[in-house]
């Protein structure tokens, strides 16, 4: 037997939905040549990552082996697959990048923010063309999803063929982009497939997925029955949906205006790369102001309630000179991603206050998912007929359920979360290593580790407030004047109804008067002691123990 | 005409779901005698209220008129109706409180935390008994909901009869507590009803509500088909559901163990007040440890993913000596309240990692809502036949939709959000005043105002981090030594790869060397200038502008 092996190692995306980053390797253990599939972001929230801008997979393992990295392949242009390309490009040693034209266009935009030129990304042709990458030959196999030019990857190695689905649905009428071509997939699989590494997002959805084509007639009906201004939001990257919305608007005699940079960016990229050829002419916001509202349709960003996106701006009042009012209609042609409910509901209530009728996603009429549902996942297994099924792109519950589904269908299922290195060689898949993984935060312009304690400190300040204590000590370690406090994020008055600041300062003074030389002469001791005084005293007064910064100034 | 009037004024609960507090008044304008219906809490979140413990309606308006307050009436024992009773009791001048026995038991517990004795709450009998409260006569009219002894209120005044529904559903088989008695409600309404002030929570649910009785058989089937330990969570106050779960467990030969203080408190209160008479014997967690897992059922708190509740604790590993594992089943017999999705999903994934099978609320089989759906609201209008419908207990979108529904049924609908004083006198309802309302935060042991800026400062620290700057100036306003910085919640290294602290201190030094006497001698000027230096310098280094506390120590 050869002692070379084929490995699969998710660094991100297996155990969460977001920040996809999947490594494949082939070679002797520890010397495998590597390819990376996708390099996406996840999004922060106030609960766990306040102030953070973006979240990436911790790619340290790969960075330390960048000399073995043959290339980065990008399956499609969703942020959770392409969003980190610019931010991590240099750390990975500026690898070759391959993507289809539309995806390449978006990836190049990401790289340009870091001054990296367009030639960093090579435009890939579709199957049957294959790219030789060390021991791998990789082909881009078109598949339908909620963004143009999504691709599965056919990854051939001396150990056989792996199919990495990317994000997908089985849509035979996707309106924009290629329809799912079952015959082509069957043909690709006909030579035998060792492993199907497969999207798991919708494994809990029991009915077969619906085509993008089904929402058009419903949206058209809704637009036709609306009298005031019609505003619709969807995911900016769902170009087919944006087109469906625009077509419905035009059919109803409305001018179309796109609001939101991401929306315009995606439509431009689609037109430029030829995936979208007959998008209606749009009007600018300036011109839109002068169009009677019953003849106007806005298609806007912010379907997830993002505060700075167009939907939220419109819900708060005038935006780009446009104002919604009684009799207007606002459509969410989107689903609310778990965790975003409050923001979306906030917008709906703001529109309600303006008298705008909101049509949300609860009817299911105006949105279809871009991911394969459970019966579609079964169908994909039947088409590809792999020996092994490796669920990816899902939280633990999705991966587990998808693994069970594979086993029900009498295939080998492998539950491999981030950091699990699986050998796909030999008779059965085998976990051969656990690699340290985690999250990297883009915080302002700096990349920090999730476990650096920086965010923990911020969360503590948010929960507990902050007190700065200042003490000046003279050459003899005697306090010079009284200590004082500066409070931030804390109430002015506590239990005793005296100003909290005064109470704290009084307690500090009393402590310093009692404190001995041993404490006063030692910075660590005095800091620790003053911190304790503040926390105890504040807890008595306001039932809260603040974070404390102690500043000891010594005159020497 | 009399110049006395009947007024309705929501202080909380109308424009949000939570912190219910509804004022009714009767008398000459500005001299109305007042009653308050419910005094509940809302729950904080990290996004908008970090560190806050509870949220109440701002009752300042009522506090300033407490001499006119006849009584507080509590419709039922949910936290959003009774939760603030202890916290606000003294501020309202220790009003008389009326509630039915179970609700009174819970309210007394809230008051006891503030040292208020049981006699503060008078136990009310149900209709046809009425309580004379100044110009009002008020009766408690039983209605079904997801907690025992929920009541509507019949509020009679010289201007006629108002029916305040409280939270309700039309359940003829509620298992615990009174069934909805349509004949009784018809009879009460038969003399004519001026206004129906009505729960709006489920106005967007198009199908008629389902009875509590429908979930029992489904739960029993599920428990019977489970082989390992069975754990179920629901709202602690949903006593009927807890009983249904327990009965299903007993029927399947399992011992029942309740985990979570709130759960045990509710069951105790139910038994003590006679609303629950045949609850199965339970075992303690200590005894549960020794019972074979296939013979054990846990009923636990934490259906919303609350971090410290039993569900979350179990998902993280051993809790009270009990550990879940492969083959066990965990049932959410509850719905996830919008905003809690992430926490619930986190728990589900943790259970998935343990190999526990989770049954969530997606099937709809194991939970029914406690609120009236749209057809039920219509039926209620038909039964009560009021002149006016005043939607309450809902966000703006619910109130608006419910108002429309009333108008579709050719009644007068009044959309009155918090602070809107509506006169229900005369021929048509009329908004007669807008009262300043808002939110009060319980923060540790202190009540603070939502607009005090305290929470805003905490959020800013969470988003931006915090820097303390210390400068010591001598008698001549000259810097004594170098300024220094303490950082909290900020990265150590920035763009220049030098420690951020050193870069900031260097920039401060340079600034101070250049600064003139006019700046150095003026505390405000120097603070403002140093803050600007820090924010600018940090922004260059890390792309973030921290919050800054400047401490200037002057030797005088």
Protein topology:
2 copies of one chain form a homodimer.
Chain A: E1 5-12, E2 14-15, E3 21-27, E4 33-37, E5 41-42, E6 54-57, H1 60-63, E7 69-73, H2 79-82, H3 85-88, E8 97-99, H4 101-112, E9 121-123, E10 131-133, E11 136-142, E12 151-157, E13 160-164, H5 182-189, E14 193-199, H6 215-224, E15 230-233, H7 239-251, E16 255-259, H8 261-272, H9 285-288, E17 296-300, H10 310-316, E18 329-332, H11 341-354, E19 357-359, H12 374-384, E20 386-392, E21 394-395, H13 396-408, E22 412-413, E23 420-423, E24 430-434, E25 439-443, E26 446-449, H14 454-464, E27 466-473, E28 484-488, H15 500-514, H16 517-520, H17 523-542, E29 547-554
Parallel strand pairs in A: 2-21, 4-7, 7-8, 8-9, 13-14, 14-20, 15-17, 15-18, 16-17, 18-19, 20-22, 27-29
Antiparallel strand pairs in A: 1-3, 1-23, 3-4, 5-6, 6-25, 10-11, 11-12, 12-13, 23-24, 25-26, 27-28
Helix pairs in contact in A: 6-7, 10-11, 15-17
> Quick one: biggest sheet of chain A?
8 strands, mixed
Relative strand content of chain A:
25-35%
**Average pLDDT score of chain A:** 96
Radius of gyration of chain A using CA atoms only: 28 Å
Q: What is the CATH level 1 assignment of the largest domain in chain A?
A: Alpha Beta
CATH superfamily of the largest domain in chain A, by name, is Ribonuclease Z/Hydroxyacylglutathione hydrolase-like
Number of strands of chain A: 29
Describe this structure in words.
- The structure is a homodimer of 556-residue chains.
- The first copy, chain A, is an alpha/beta fold and 556 residues long.
- The first copy, chain A, folds into 3 domains: 5-207 and 369-449, Metallo-beta-lactamase, Chain A, CATH 3.60.15.10; 212-363, 3-Layer(aba) Sandwich (Rossmann fold); 465-554, Ubiquitin-like (UB roll) (Roll).
- An 8-stranded mixed beta sheet of chain A has the order 9-8-7-4-3-1-23-24.
- The radius of gyration of chain A is 28 Å and the shape is globular.
- The termini of chain A are far apart.
- The interface between A and B is large, with 61 and 61 residues.
């Amino acid at each position: 037997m050869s002692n070379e092996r084929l490995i699969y190692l998710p660094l991100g995306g297996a155990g969460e939905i977001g920040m996809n980053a999947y490594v494949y390797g082939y070679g002797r253990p520890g010397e495998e040549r590597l390819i990376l599939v996708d390099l996406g972001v996840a999004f922060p929230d106030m609960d766990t990552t306040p102030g953070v801008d973006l979240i990436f997979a911790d790619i340290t393992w790969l960075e330390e082996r960048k000399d073995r990295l043959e290339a980065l392949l990008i399956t499609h242009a969703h942020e959770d697959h392409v969003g980190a390309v610019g931010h991590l490009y240099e750390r990975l040693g500026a690898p070759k990048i391959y993507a289809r034209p539309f995806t390449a266009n978006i990836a190049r935009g990401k790289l340009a923010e870091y001054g990296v030129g367009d030639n960093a990304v090579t435009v890939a042709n579709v199957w049957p063309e294959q790219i030789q990458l060390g021991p791998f030959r990789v082909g881009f196999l078109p598949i339908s999803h909620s963004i143009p030019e999504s691709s599965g990857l056919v990854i051939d190695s001396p150990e056989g063929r792996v199919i990495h689905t990317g994000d997908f649905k089985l849509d035979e009428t996707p309106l924009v982009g290629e329809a799912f071509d079952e015959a082509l997939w069957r043909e690709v699989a006909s030579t035998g497939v060792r492993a199907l590494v497969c999207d798991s997002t919708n494994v809990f959805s029991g009915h077969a997925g619906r085509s993008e084509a089904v929402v058009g007639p419903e949206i058209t009906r809704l637009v036709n029955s609306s009298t005031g201004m019609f505003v619709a939001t969807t995911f900016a990257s769902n170009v087919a949906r944006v087109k469906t919305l625009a077509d419905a608007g035009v059919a109803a005699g409305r001018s179309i205006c796109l609001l939101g940079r991401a929306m315009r960016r995606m439509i431009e990229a689609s037109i430029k790369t030829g995936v979208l050829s007959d998008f209606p002419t749009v009007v600018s916001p300036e011109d839109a102001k002068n169009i009677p509202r019953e003849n106007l349709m806005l298609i806007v960003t912010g379907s997830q309630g993002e505060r700075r996106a167009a939907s939220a701006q419109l819900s708060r009042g005038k935006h780009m000179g446009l104002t919604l009012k009684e009799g207007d209609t606002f459509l969410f042609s989107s689903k609310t991603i778990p965790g975003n409910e409050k923001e979306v509901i906030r917008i709906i209530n703001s529109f309600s206050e303006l008298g705008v009728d909101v049509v949300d996603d609860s009817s299911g009429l105006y949105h279809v998912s871009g991911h394969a549902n459970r019966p579609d996942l079964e169908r994909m297994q039947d088409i590809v007929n792999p020996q092994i099924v490796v669920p990816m792109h899902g939280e633990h519950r999705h991966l587990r359920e998808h693994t069970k589904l594979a086993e029900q269908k009498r295939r080998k299922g492998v539950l491999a979360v981030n950091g699990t290195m699986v050998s796909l060689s030999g008779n059965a898949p085998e976990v051969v290593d656990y690699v340290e993984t985690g999250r990297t935060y883009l915080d302002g312009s700096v990349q920090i580790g999730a476990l650096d304690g920086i965010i923990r400190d911020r969360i503590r300040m948010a929960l507990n407030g902050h007190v700065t204590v200042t003490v000046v000590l003279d050459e003899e370690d005697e306090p010079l004047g009284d200590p004082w406090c500066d409070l931030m994020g804390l109430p002015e008055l506590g239990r005793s109804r005296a100003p909290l600041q005064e109470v704290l300062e009084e307690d500090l003074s009393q402590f310093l008067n009692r404190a001995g030389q041993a404490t006063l002469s030692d910075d660590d001791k005095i800091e620790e002691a003053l911190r304790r005084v503040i926390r105890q005293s504040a807890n008595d007064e306001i039932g809260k123990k603040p974070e404390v910064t102690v500043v000891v100034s010594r005159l020497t």
